[in-house]
Structure prediction request, 352 residues.
Amino acid sequence: MRVFSTRHFLVLCCALCVFSAAADELDERPPLPESEGLSFPDAPGSYVIYRDVTGKDERYVGLCYLGGNELAIRMYNQADGSEVVVVETLYTIPAENGRRELDPGSITIIRGDINGSAVRDLVPRTWQWIQSWLSSRPSAPDALEWTYEEESVYSFEYWIPLIQLRSDGSAYRLVTAGRIQSVTDASFFAFTGEGVAEGGPVYDLVYTPGAAEMTGKALPSRPLWFPDSHWVTASDGISRITRVTGQDAFAVEESVSSGDIGGLDSLTFMKLLVVHSGYELVADRVRVFREGDDVCALFCVHDRESATRTVQFKRLRQEAGRFRILSLGVAQSLFDRNPQYFSTVAGVQLFR
Prediction:
């Protein structure tokens, strides 16, 4: 269980993604005069992947933002290993009440056969997703979660990249999200299904009042967490529980200047920390919420190399032009055995 620090995150945010594709274009038509290119509030390379939950097919649909008004759409069928990848240009045109309506542009085939019935169904479905997002945004500009109903109930959450869609209510649900670093990045372009965790430490933890071994470091007057005697802090500044693996759980506090992250607000900063975790995000276990003036996130990541999962909790507190950041990570097997213990340590109810 590697500690992925905020310093790593800041380096990652500075990386540039370069995308290139060559293929035959199908529908080339000029945009309408009143149309505008559709852009997304995320960096190029940001992606989301959805799974068909109807039980009819083990299908995945992924959307990856290429920059400008270009979106890569990848459809993968787990049953036979077939896939289709297209790149589409997207526009919007004025609609009623000052809103925008989707106006799909040209489609470029990158890989696969676009003439299959599944593809003919799924591309228009992604248009419905995007249109529901466009229609819902004016009614929930500052919400962490919201829904929009039109033929189906669409669920949205602030932290999700691109169209912020959690579920379309009936057929597809988000399984992971992230940001690729190149056009060959396997996390999106070779995704074939969610990773499966194998084992992990399992034992009971009882909160034991009393100072943890902090190697001379005193907790601040307004602590971000509340370690007990199970925790030991080493010279690297990282606190750990080390009963089985040497790092069954870890916690580290950091501080960054608001200027170092371009003056981002707390919610946007937290969104980036979650999406850029460095591992495969397990979307079902992501929850972003407020605790007083702090912004918190509880989420789970999967490491395919070690086949392990880690539950992570992050807490942001803005003070005098700086962000104080707590990063707490726990082996999923240990967290699931002791949710109340880790809630006490975090000072926040982490299960519901």
